[in-house]
Amino acid sequence: MATGYDDAVSASGEWEETARGHGVSRQGELLELPEPGQRTVTVAGVHNPVARVLLDSPVPHLDRTFDYLVPAAMAQQALPGTRVMVRFGEQEMRGWIWERGSTTTHIGRLSALRRVVSDLPVLPEGSRRLIEAVASRSCGTRSDVVRLAVPARHATTEKAERNKGPLDLATWEPLSSSDHGWQPYDGGEEFLKRLAHGEAPRAVWSALPAPQQRPPATCSAGDDGSSVPAVSPWQLCLAQAVQATLASSRSAVIVVATTHQAETLAARLRHNLEGEPVVVLSAEHGPARRYRAFLALLLGRARVVVGTRAAAFAPVHRLGLAVVWDDGDNRLEEPHAPYCHARTVLALRSTLESAGLLIGGFTRSVEAHSLVEQGWCQNLAAPRHVVRAAVPRVEVPGPAELDREGASGAARIPSLAHRALRSALQDGPVLVQVPRAGYAPLVACARCRTAAHCTVCGGPLAMDQRGRTSCRWCARTVGQWDCPECGGHGLRMATVGSTRTGEELGRAFPGVPVVVSGAREAHGVIDEVDGTPRLVVATPGAEPVAEGGYRAILLLDGGALSSRPDLGAASEALRQWSNAVVLAAPSARVVLLGGPDPVAAQALLRWDQAGFARRDLLERAELHLPPAWRVARLDGPARGVESLLAQADADGFEVLGPVTPPPVRGQATSGAVRALVRAPLSRGKALATMLGLRLRDRSAHREEPVRVELDPTRLW
Questions:
Q1: How many helices (H) and strands (E) does the chain have?
Q2: The pTM is what?
Q3: Can you point out the beta strands (E) in 72-139?
Q4: Could you tell me the strand order of the sheet in which 477-478 lies?
Q5: Which of 53, 413, 574, 701 is the most exposed place for a label (fewest CB within 10 A)?
Q6: Best CA proximity match to 417, nearest among 500, 545, 504, 496
Q7: Could you give the C-alpha distances from 683 to 291, 411, 687, in angstroms and in order?
């Protein structure tokens, strides 16, 4: 049964038809006959002299190959997958040779290739197939996908890397059953065995929380010679899965959300896989370093790569295992066309290349769990008694408990939380997670409590430590502000950020060091803290690792995080809470405050993220929302959106809208509208195909463009 991502990958096998007693031709022979209008092109001394070139253009109706003549002087350099320059109309354009052939449908004389930028095939056949699959599924153009898959060329680096000799890669043996950390998981040992035997298992892995430990020895974490930080058990499990893959003489691709995570994990893999090159592929490393890592994989000098979302396209040889860690992190989603998620790319790639797939994390995204429910992936989790023994105690004070605290029970940090922090600070550090960064991220009218917004762009107003008010979107400083509701001029803090929280806790616990970690802080994100008593205030994703684990964790403003009017807000809140809980010591107390979503809070109490994802998936199926259904969000001028909706309705798809969307950060309202088109999974490919054809048609007729995003994380 083909379900899930299998539906997006067309079969490549050749169908044959035979009839007993009759000379019926094979289907493959019929397909090889020239199409009407085709003619054969010959060039002396050149095999397949027609280069089918994909232009480097995001224009939808140019998302096709154009035929060019390969001169005899370029016959050995102009190979499929190479960069070339061609003449298109009145200008020179860059492109990639998609394939070579001997026929063309072009009526006139073929233009010759202008030059070959580099004879290095940066788009091997496997990459081209993956790019086509991703573009087809996401209703995008292949050139947009190529932009994600292939870094910009760095000529000096390319010359230096090509002059290097080949490397002798090590031969690995499978791990014995007593040497790996997958034993607590049901099906973990079988997963490793299948990887070692060259098979392609697919699994969604719920990793166990466990305290981090210092490595017995240090190893290089990068070019600067830094040492390996604290060791996480999930990193050891990934290293063992990679070793099992290497034992079958195959490669591994691991995708994480940030460059720092990639470098840390690569350091751990180098330590465990001593002698095996591990490449880090990230756009933050700059053109030369990124292209050097890309070439090391392309030329077969490395079999293991760890990187950010673009590393899902890494050109490794014989892919055996594709891994995405913490797939619910929105940083794994491409913000530009074709808006593909790293999880989607790796799932497609595992099908195309018959490779294993591992989607792991401490929590469970509803998209990953949908693959388990479809039977496309197996569930890889530990038994409940093992989970209960590994998870710290989580508390969610209810109304009765808060009422017993008296007046302080209504405070943002009630007295029971103060007592928990004071007790834990006697033993070591404590963590306070705050959803918002800054001092006062939102301010409101001091008289009527109406939220204050910028009069220029409509963005929310914020206040800093000096009392200055500015817009969070356009950064304009606000002097005199007039409330549109009551005419008042005064402002008050509507929400409290991490900086203000650290300031308040510093006054409540005099003499205790306070550390604030966050991307907006002057010192940025702090990676680690020692085991001495201190208060650590951090935003989600910026929590430092504490030596020996935090003795207590306080999760503030749970309602602000889990009750936002966004699709998957509660699931995202559960993910961020779970990632903070795993940093606690086994005996620590975890207190969740701020009126959190009760269902998400109960899932955290039971540490049942998979159960929460299952419930969320059922609700989305009833509402016809992704990932239970495929949904396309259309943004653009009213006439263009209505035209696409009319075509979708005629084809039997569900349509919602159009409506006026909410203002976009940093953009003024332009009269655009928004609509949704929905289809069951069985018709998901038909929906993407229909929208792709209509976008090409609109582009060819020079009509106003409509932005189409399939399976968006934000619907309105």
A1: 20, 31
A2: 0.89
A3: 83-88, 91-101, 103-104, 115-118
A4: 461-463, 469-471, 477-478
A5: 701
A6: 504
A7: 39, 51, 6
